[in-house]
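Researcher: For the record, we're logging two predictions in this thread. I'll number them. Prediction 1 follows.
Model: Prediction 1, sequence and structure:
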Amino acid sequence: MIIRQRNEKARVSRAEKCVPIVGGACIAFCLCLLAPVVLGSETRAVGSAFDKASGEFLYKELHRCLLDEEHCVVEYRDNVGKLLASKKLDYRGKPYRPSLVLKDYRSGRELSLEPPNDDALVVDAGFDNFVRSRWEIFDSGGSVQFNFLVPGRDTPIAMRADRDNREDCDAGALCIQVGLDSWLLARFVDPILLTYASDDRLLLRYDGPGNLASQDGSVPDVVIHYEHLEVHEGDLSDWGSGDLIVNDWTESGIAR
């Protein structure tokens, strides 16, 4: 079951999924999703990631943005709130191709990406904005091809997104599958499955490769459930520090 909590104010922010922040090579097919949809207010989103095979809890994704909705940060934390990794995103003038910096506090590794000036390119978490910009196409059963760039790669990947009419797609949801735009390669790589709410177009569920590699360097397939909650100006503290504070998130009702 997809758990989706909201109070009367609830709306959202930014989600993601991308090439593992840590570990060795893996197929650069992971997406980085959540993007802001509420203008004029800071937002939060919490994603709970579980191992798809075992059901074991792996990590939480904590998403928040400044009031301008163009500067966002994502924290990855374990079940006791320890900071594992973080990502800073700068969307200024580039809703589909943010620049970003990834830091893995377990290994000290850092990756940065300043995307090329190509309006046709989709980068990392910009995919979430891209989905909403093509919403009517997906809603009518159409498909979209795009070039996708992630940290750790020099060239984009040709990908394709289609509406997914699978039987377990909940009523009131828009389900999308994302795969490689090559019929041959796509035979060997499972598509990423996304579930969006039809009413407010917010990401509810991600099913695909995880963001964080395991200790052995492998990248587990995960299922991530997203919950969205509006917050107030000033709640984003320590912007720019190496260890961003979760504030009350780990103790809140949506971060259990």
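Researcher: Logged. Prediction 2.
Model: Prediction 2, sequence and structure:
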Amino acid sequence: MYLLYQLTTGLFTFLALPLLFCLAVRRKYRGRLLRRFGWRLKEQLTGIGRPMSQNFWIHALSVGEVTSALPLVRGLRNSYPDANIIFSVTTSSGMEVARKLFDPDIGVVVIDAPLDVGPVVPFFVHSIRPDLFILVETDFWPHWLHFLARQGIPTVLVNGRISETSFQRYQRFSALFQPMFASFTLLSMQTEADALTVTRLGLDAGRVRNLGNLKFDTSHLKTRQNSQTDIADVKQRYGFSQAAPLWICGSTHRGEEVIIFEVLTRLRALLPDLQLLLAPRNIERGPEIVLLADQSGLLNRLWSENRKSRGSLLILDTIGELATCYFMADVVFVGGSLVREGGHNPIEPASACVPVLFGPHMEDFSEVAAGLIEAGGGQQVGCADELYTALECILTRPSVQRSMAQSAREYVDNNRGVVDRHLQSIQNVLTGRASDG
């Protein structure tokens, strides 16, 4: 099956050469596409500067995975100050965020991920010469992982998660995916349910760990420990009134904005000065959401068009700013949850000491959502009416808002320490004790 995968991807690449050539001559795609084939890779790696040290290669798919990896990267830098850290990213948006987060002080070389075809992967592996490969959450590539295993390079999955849909796909094509997962030296999963799911693929349970979600240790997030002056300054920067309440909706999907604007209109009959910051998951949808707001009779502004604008409804269509905004909110709704998208990260707003609301579809964060509800820092809503009722209660009862906010933050604090567990497991892998408990 692996050989078939190699032949298929190789044939597809050969047949797609005319298209790849057309893309390569366009400025928008030229640089990234060529770099994913290995163009100028060795030039990028000259910045490593520690030829006799260990090489840690970390890979992440996109923005969410890059952000998750930040505390681990900082932990590795502190634990292995002389190591070379090479961080590869698949998407252009993830690359943009990685270059912002991994400043030169951390000492990380950020590169484009290799295409999983033919000689490309061997070229990257031989150029980087990793002593350890770390994959963050997802983005599994059979050829890439198989080649690392053949070279005897330890591979670790961190912050692993497997949805039921993905599990069914892995089972259906088990001849390809079972050997791929078996190639990992260690699989560290976000939850006990994820750990049990991955063992159902027939893997050795001794190489599977439930180490928790790295997002609990994401240390770059600002919190309510910031002074009220800081919060007021950020509100002013984003063009909001300092005194009026602010509702933030993060990572929304098509079908949710209509509900949100309906609820906002109803709430403003009770709270006329209520402000809203809405950040779509796909920032290219900004103009579409502006049209929806116009149709709802809501004055609005698009952040990418005018960063000096002021007004009570802001559509945040930029990358990497949402997490910083959460701490100025009075309440947050996490998107991808009123529609069947699996939900998005509720840990970020909870870390910011803010009450968190989400819909019924939080499959990708089911244990975190359940934990927040149990702790009293989160609440699930199933429709527009339930969302309105929850917001009305939080925004008109300061004691409820304060209680939920504190409970949300305490839930996150009680689950910290995930990085330390990962670092201990990585040390075990490097010393040949990966199966140690």
